[in-house]
């Protein structure tokens, strides 16, 4: 669960004014540990992928509307599709940024965990903590693999969208639109594949969050 709004405000302030290590240290002083931050960042990454799914689907719909354009203002239809492409690019950037934040806190968490294991004097407790660390690292690696796989699907889709938008910008007429319909079929397939990969990543995020909150 997300903490109180005051913690969110503190987090924003710290991120704007200092390095990550100082941020983590200050957050820990108010009872908000790296583990909590990691769960929140995985939730944020999941939400950004859900938003990206919606945005790419919306862009696909607007491009389809443009290609099926029959009468009315062609320029208006083109601008709508272009706006959706640009919003898709922003959504993709947000996904990438959120994944980077997950990776950053994971590195800090695992480094701290490994260091603190060395401070445990009782062997049985030390072994138990080492086992839990390996288990969590394994789950995390699987999570990041699925996130990265979904992320990698975005660039080709965005490139295809950009190509289509630029081509139509220079050739905005019925003949050019007709010529793009073959390209659109491939784009539909690519976006469908992207959404499937994001669904897998979202499911893996849910699994990871449940495991972290259950421990």
From TrEMBL:
Database matches in PROSITE patterns: PROKAR_LIPOPROTEIN
Ranges in coiled-coil conformation: 42-153
Signal peptide positions on this chain: 1-22
One Pfam short name: DUF2959
Keyword match DNA repair: no
Assigned keywords, A-Z: Coiled coil, Signal
Protein name per the record: DUF2959 domain-containing protein
